[in-house]
Write a structure and sequence with these properties.
Elements (H helix, E strand, L loop, with lengths): L4 H14 L4 H8 L3 H9 L7 H10 L4 H6 L4 H52 L7
Helix pairs in contact: 2-3
Length: 132
């Protein structure tokens, strides 16, 4: 992670600023000492604990991948998921309509078959009454 350290710190500091909190509050919320977080954010060394990085990501509701690379934003993924859900709902609606159409066709076919069967049975039982 060392090569990305400054980018990671920059993204964390940006999230701190955007959320209007202090480093002290972040440290307290994620359960690390303020001095430890402060030292880590000012250091050129990689995060000593990936758990700390994960806690920061969870606190800000972003993926750890975003903190590391900056290319992966949870909000973007959520938006893509919502779009996919909408797409599936539309497909589901279309499928339900097709199923309903098939059901109606089957019902009509069954009713026609029953009608034909009823006429045949009447013909067999009362052949003379149908001729009149």
């Amino acid at each position: 992670m060392k090569s990305h350290k400054s980018d990671i710190v920059r993204r964390i500091l940006d999230l701190i600023e955007k959320n209007g909190i202090t480093q002290y509050r972040l440290a307290k919320e994620i359960g690390v000492l303020n001095a430890t977080l402060n030292k880590t954010l000012k250091s050129d060394n990689a995060f000593s604990s990936s758990k700390t990085l994960l806690k920061i990501a969870q606190y800000f509701n972003v993926d750890i991948e975003y903190l590391i690379s900056g290319y992966y934003d949870k909000n973007e993924i959520i938006e893509k998921c919502y779009n996919k859900v909408d797409e599936l709902k539309k497909e589901n609606k279309e499928l339900r309509q097709k199923i309903e159409d098939i059901e109606n066709s089957l019902i009509a076919l069954i009713e026609r078959k029953e009608s034909v069967a009823k006429k045949k049975s009447q013909k067999l039982l009362h052949p003379q009454s149908l001729r009149k």
